[in-house]
Design brief:
InterPro entries: HAD-like_sf (IPR036412), HAD_sf (IPR023214). The chain starts with 15 loop residues before the first helix and ends in a 5-residue tail after the last helix. The chain has helices spanning about 15-30, 30-40, 40-50, 55-65, 70-80, 85-95, 110-120, 130-135, 140-150, 170-175, 190-200, and strands spanning about 105, 130, 160-165, 180-185. The chain folds into 2 domains: about 15-80; about 85-200, Rossmann fold. The strands form 2 sheets. It has a two-stranded parallel ribbon with strand order 1-2. It has a two-stranded parallel sheet with strand order 3-4. The chain is mainly α and about 200 residues long. α1 (about 15-30) runs antiparallel to α2 and α1 packs across α5 (about 70-80).
Length: about 200
Amino acid sequence: MVKSPEYTRGVLFSNGKELGLDKLELDYGYDRNIVWQLLNSPESWELRRGNISDDAFWTWAQTQLPKGYDACLIRDTWYSMYILDENILKLLQRLKQQNYRIIAYTDNIPERVAYLENKYHFQHYFDAEVKSYDWHAVKTDITFAKALLKIAGCETDPSTLVHIDDQILDVEHVKKLGGNVLIYRTGYINELITALHNIGVQC
């Protein structure tokens, strides 16, 4: 695996997976490729889809790891490395002042959402949430993009939806369905604001 040069990607939060890999490698000597494969395994995506429980996943994960690796340490490090992007938070606050409806669209897992909510208290900024484990689908599944349009009330007019994400693959289905999509790179908030202004969003 080749590490991405923009490993702090994310929208509301930094990419905790990459930052967690860094910490596990530097502080504990874990092979980042082994951990990366675990966190991107088919089983991990079934966890995100809500098809297996968190306990079942990490119990299974321990059996896949080399001797001396601790699955619970990997989990806790992964969770702890998600850092709130203050620029995006301020943007959300301005958008709410303009009476835009803000929806979280995430293929996160319940335990990690609960951990981040307890740490940052961010969920009240959203008017609705579309979660992978509720829909048994993730962003690369078109059914999940359709769920977003449904919850947003944009099924008949997808062009009224603006979807901001940090991964091109994660916006493809929303784009195909007619929604506006924007890619955000951590630290490039001015570019994102300009892109929003260009499609008529007041922020």
